[in-house]
Design goal:
- The complex is a heterodimer of chains A (about 120) and B (about 110).
- By secondary structure, chain A is mostly beta strands.
- Chain A is about 0% helix and about 50% strand.
- Chain A contains no helices and eleven strands.
- In chain A, about 35% of the residues are buried.
- Chain B is about 0% helix and about 45% strand.
- Chain B has strands at about 10, 20-25, 35-40, 45-50, 65-70, 70-75, 85-95, 100, 105-110.
- In chain B, the strands form two sheets. In chain B, strands 1, 3, 4, 7, 8 and 9 form a six-stranded mixed β-sheet that branches.
- Chain B starts with 8 loop residues before the first strand and ends with a strand.
- The chains are: A mainly beta (about 120), B mainly beta (about 110).
- Chains A and B meet through β5 and β10 of A and β3, β7 and β8 of B.
Chain lengths: ~120, ~110
Amino acid sequence: EVQLVQSGPEVKRPGATVKISCSASGYTFTDYSIHWVRQAPGKGLEWMGLLDPANGERIYAEKFRGRVTITADASTDTAYMEVTSLTSDDRAVYYCATSSGGISVPTFNYWGQGSLVTVSS
Amino acid sequence: QSVLTQPPSVSAAPGQRVTISCSGRTSNIGNNYVSWYRQLPRTAPKLLIFENNRRPSGIPDRFSGSKSGTSATLGITGLQTGDEADYYCATWDAGLSAVVFGGGTKVTVL
């Protein structure tokens, strides 16, 4: 059974950095790309970026370039997303998801449970 | 403002059929596959349709997808109370080099 287990909720001050983990199991880690999607309270889904563990390719949404870094540790089948310079606008649930399609064929077949990030002074 | 346009809400009685549209442009829907997701309250989204019209194993054939030009459509037949959820379309946008989502459509079963 494929599972993506994310790290727990975080509370951060404005200007701080948060790093969320996504531990994968039940499949070969390099078979699927890992994507990060966030959802602000009461809002829709927003794609942030992806990492292809097979070749290390990373693509970020323009909005997040320079502020978001996605990494992976193949030895532990874990992906990470770091977001810097947090503001109240970053308050959201952050999801990791695998995609079984190619880079340009988003097919989010498995999702993590979500990690709530709260930014408050 | 989402790159892909969905109606904010649709509704129908139990047993009826609803369709949800997803409108884009050549750089996204026009030249790329569309996938659809259902999100129940306080849960992660779930894949319903991929590559325009294919269903993952375990998704009933009450759910269907189609694409024509720069628009895609999700159909749900035999509507059930358990279908009340938010539904999202997604695709790749070659101009943005990014995955884009629709704004989401809330389905209400009357």
